[in-house]
Design a protein that fits this description.
S-adenosyl-L-methionine; DNA (cytosine-5-)-methyltransferase; SH3 type barrels; globular; single chain; alpha/beta; 23 helices; DNA (cytosine-5-)-methyltransferase activity
């Protein structure tokens, strides 16, 4: 007799029953239909046997069952219907012919109710005792999994129930799934894996579980139960023996929820936090923050900078409370920001004082009128030019030859198209007249009094807080060192920058291309300007055959080998430092290369584990126990004290994670208005419980912060030391069809949000990223430029600011993705600079790009090209080793659960997108 078990809403609990062994049947033959469609698909309908109506097969099976059990019906309406199980084999499950989309297309059974109920059918051979038939187009009403609660057997038995069987008045009839048809096997194998995981997940959830429980604890629980079970081992191997199951749990969460919902203890199971953390059935673990704010909020200073822009009407001023304002001022004073002028102060132009026969002195700030040639280069020049006198020389005729550093007004820099709040702020530059035309005292109109690094900003005198670095168009805090140009400083030899034992890049030619190779500085000959270096060869590039001989496969491109080859090189061939870390044999073979040295060379980080030896049999490789004493081990990446971070428009948290991995930042607050994004951020957080996740508008958060409300999710002034933001890019995208529609204007206006939060919290550092097109000037708004206005706003606050283009392919990514990056640093701190490229594309394959033009017509922020240690990563290289998912119709990739389409197009959708030429 067949074993019976309880049925609860189509789900069974009990010990696993042995599946009836498949028996060969000469009457059954397998046709070869299209791999993606059922064999009954009209276009190639070739059933393996004549189909019998299901109603007839059920009648025959019930009669057979009665003969076998010799049962006598009992007239008792309170008695449950007797269970009748029929074996189903050589089956396939597919979308009903009545489906508007994807009719007859094969699908896995775990999609029956996910994400919503579907009309599925099955074909196959059914058998009970000696009675067997082929049935076709049978509508499925429900499925069932047996095995929950079994602590000894990790496997499951699966069933389906047809609509006709569900309404049988006498029996509770289920079809037990045996072996599928050959071309349906890939679908059914995927379902069985997911169903078995569902058993484990639900059994594990008898105690409260969160998504983080599946990071490592779930695996330990599984090992305690089934570590020695061969079936479990095969199941786990299919998942690449991973310890962290969070990705898989999230991928199949809707199926698991449906299973839990139909179990007797569903109230206990559905009360778990896991479901809302994975957003099952639209639930959320993070409470959305409602707000009545309709505009983009800005602090008064930021609003004044942006209100004239084409999106300015979308920005609304919001003043901080008195308490918050006092906290702001205290924060500014503590960090060295100058105090602004009083609101009642009336600015008047500074006075130019004639020399009246007095000599020009070092330290004077002089004024001169540009000549015709200069005026033709610097367009619309109708103001005095300013210069800092760094040296004078009295000539025989009594006049003075002046050595100067030019001082720029804001409209002579890359802020030329911006509205700047301080007309009397000027910037010392690193641009001198040493190689330009001679400047004499007779050319000077007079001098100005200047306030250098004032603690209080005045309105009647020029003041200088920052130096303008012309090559990068960046702004840095002015220092006494800046008052002498590089031409007049005592030039130090490049050889003074390096020490024995350090690893550096040596420029060399390889296949007619300039590249950088790491070497060890062994000895320095200062007088000769030479350096003796010990060569480090690349294992994969230079010794691939020896690596294979040493049973080394999948050698990373940033692994080097210590050699006994030395070379004397000119110091000018040394480009910069790089970092090499020793990795032990055990760690290397176990794949335990420490982060970030496992990123294949990103960040100029290399690993070394082997050395090259020479014996009777020729060259060989052997593992190093330690580095040679002279060679300096590269340090761990990270700082003991990390900056407390705030992330705006954080999305899924990728930028935040990258910055955290750099070692200097720990984000404590993240803000995003997308439910999917903020929950993704939570799922990937190292410690979600300590991360303040604000699910709502940045404007609502700013509104609350400016009001000084003490809420758990709102950081107070003084608690934020780093701000990262990636404001909505659609407002600036080149693909934007109408940049003046309301949504686009609102998106664009949020570029001011980063500035407002910086103004409020006054962090030590910050970074803003957006599309490069943000630097473009809109037609009809030629006197406005978003990039210039953002930089102007930040510089006016007193921040050091840099901006540049960063290309993904320059740092080891196969993506052709470029971003505009703006970085800020509080006064006196070391500014963030653009990272060195580690990967390069051929010059001819990369289009020229810059961030704009200066008033003198020169471009600034240009894309850089120079030798790098690696070529750029091809898409074929990045995608090598990805599992074969065919046309992805199975929609379940067990080893990599996220290798699935988020949406599936119908055949008609695909056809309409096919090229017609």
């Amino acid at each position: 007799m067949l074993n019976t078990c309880d049925t609860i809403k189509g789900k069974r609990r009990g010990k696993k029953r042995k599946t009836a062994a498949a028996e060969s049947d000469p009457a059954i033959s397998h046709s070869q239909p299209s791999a993606d469609f059922a064999r009954c698909y009209p276009a190639h309908c070739k059933p393996p046997s004549p189909a019998t109506p299901e109603v007839e097969t059920l009648r025959q099976f019930k009669a057979e069952w009665k003969r076998k059990t010799r049962g006598i019906p009992i007239d008792d309406t309170k008695r449950p219907k007797e269970l009748l199980i029929v074996d189903l084999r050589d089956f396939e499950v597919y979308c009903s012919s009545h489906c508007e989309r994807r009719a007859y297309e094969l699908t896995s059974l775990h999609f029956l109710e996910v994400p919503m109920a579907k009309k599925l059918c099955f074909d196959g051979f059914v058998r009970l005792g000696k009675a067997r038939y082929y049935i076709q187009g049978v509508p499925i009403q429900d499925s069932s999994v047996e095995g929950y609660g079994d602590e000894e057997n990790p496997n499951v038995v699966t069933y389906v129930r047809s609509e006709l069987a569900a309404h049988d008045p006498e029996y509770d009839i289920w079809y037990r799934l045996n072996e599928p048809s050959p071309h349906y096997k890939r679908f059914h194998d995927a379902f069985l894996w997911v169903a078995q995981m569902g058993k484990h997940v639900i059994d594990y959830m008898q105690s409260p579980r969160s998504l983080d429980s599946f990071r490592t604890d779930f695996h330990l629980w599984l090992m305690r139960r089934f570590a020695r079970d061969l079936d479990f081992q095969r199941w786990h191997t299919t998942f690449r023996n991973q310890v962290d199951f969070r990705v898989a749990v999230n991928a199949y969460i809707e199926y698991f929820y449906h299973q839990a919902y139909n179990l007797p203890n569903h109230k206990l199971l559905l009360a778990q936090p896991l479901w809302s953390e994975c957003m099952a059935k639209g639930m959320t673990a993070i409470k959305p923050r409602e707000s009545a704010v309709k505009y983009t909020l800005a602090t008064p200073e930021v609003h004044a900078c942006f209100k004239h822009m084409y999106f300015g009407k979308q920005i609304q001023e919001k003043r901080p409370t008195t308490k918050v304002h006092m906290q702001q001022e205290q924060r500014k004073r503590r960090l060295g920001f100058a105090k602004g002028p009083l609101p009642t102060s009336v600015a008047r132009p500074p006075d130019c004082q004639p020399y009246a026969g007095s000599p020009v002195r070092v330290g004077d700030v002089v004024a001169l009128v540009p000549d015709t040639t200069d005026a033709s280069v610097w367009r619309d020049t109708n103001w005095d030019w300013l210069a800092y006198v760094q040296g004078t020389e009295t000539l025989e005729n009594g006049t003075q030859r002046l050595a100067v550093l030019w001082i720029y007004r804001h409209h002579e820099t890359n802020l030329s198209k911006a509205k700047y709040p301080f007309a009397n702020e000027v910037f010392l530059s690193d641009n001198c007249n040493c190689t330009d035309g001679e400047l004499r005292s007779t050319d000077i109109k007079g001098k100005y009094d200047i306030d250098w690094s004032p603690s209080v900003v005045g309105t009647n005198r020029f003041f200088v807080r920052q130096t303008y670095i012309t090559q990068e168009s960046s702004f840095v805090s002015v220092t006494e060192e800046h008052k002498t140009c590089m031409c007049k400083k005592e030039n130090s030899s490049p050889i003074d920058n390096y020490r024995p034992g350090e690893t550096v890049y040596l420029r060399k030619s390889l296949q007619k291309e300039e590249i950088l190779d790491p070497v060890v500085v062994y000895k320095i000959y200062e007088l000769k300007g030479l350096v003796l270096v010990r060569k480090l060869s690349r294992l994969g590039r230079d010794y691939a055959t020896l690596a294979e001989k040493a049973h080394r496969s999948n050698v990373p491109p940033n692994e080097v080998v210590l050699t006994n080859q030395y070379e004397e090189v000119d110091v000018t061939r040394i480009q910069r430092r790089c970092f090499v870390r020793h990795v032990s044999r055990s760690d290397l073979l176990a794949g335990q290369v420490p982060f970030p040295y496992n990123l294949e060379g990103a960040g100029d980080l290399w690993i070394i584990s082997m050395r090259l030896t020479l014996g009777r049999g020729g060259q060989n490789l052997e593992f190093l126990h330690a580095l040679p004493p002279i060679m300096k081990q590269s340090p761990d990446i990270g700082w003991v004290k990390k900056l407390r971070g705030l992330s705006l428009f954080s999305g899924g948290g990728s930028l935040d994670r990258g910055l955290e991995d750099g070692g200097a930042v720990k984000f404590q607050t993240a803000v995003d208005s997308s439910a999917n994004a903020i929950h993704t951020h939570r799922a990937n957080a190292r410690n979600a419980e300590k991360l303040r996740l604000y699910f709502g508008s940045v404007d609502a958060l700013l509104d609350t912060a400016l009001d000084g409300k003490s809420l758990k999710l709102v950081a107070q002034v003084g608690e934020v030391e780093f701000i990262a933001a990636g404001s909505p890019c659609p407002g600036f995208s080149a693909l934007q069809p109408d940049y003046k529609n309301l949504k686009s204007l609102k998106n664009a206006s949020h570029i001011s949000t980063f500035c407002s939060f910086v103004d409020l919290y006054r962090p030590l550092y910050g970074i803003l990223e957006n599309v490069v097109n943000m630097a473009s000037t809109r037609t009809g708004h030629e006197n406005e430029n978003v990039l210039s206005q953002v930089v102007a706003c930040l510089v006016s606050m007193g921040y050091q600011v840099n901006q540049y283009i960063m290309d993904a392919w320059s740092y080891g990514s196969a993506q052709q993705r470029s971003r505009l990056i703006i970085t800020i640093a509080a006064p006196g701190l070391t500014p963030m600079t653009q990272q060195w490229h580690t990967h390069s594309r051929p010059y001819e394959e990369t289009s020229g790009k810059s961030l704009g033009k200066l008033p003198n017509g020169e471009r600034f922020g240009e894309r850089e090209h120079y030798p790098t240690p690696f070529p750029y990563v091809h898409a074929s290289t990045a995608s090598f080793g990805l599992p074969e998912i065919g046309n992805s119709i199975v929609q379940t990739c067990v080893p990599y659960p996220d290798h699935r389409n988020t949406s599936r197009n119908s055949l008609l959708d695909v056809v309409t997108r096919m090229p017609r030429d």
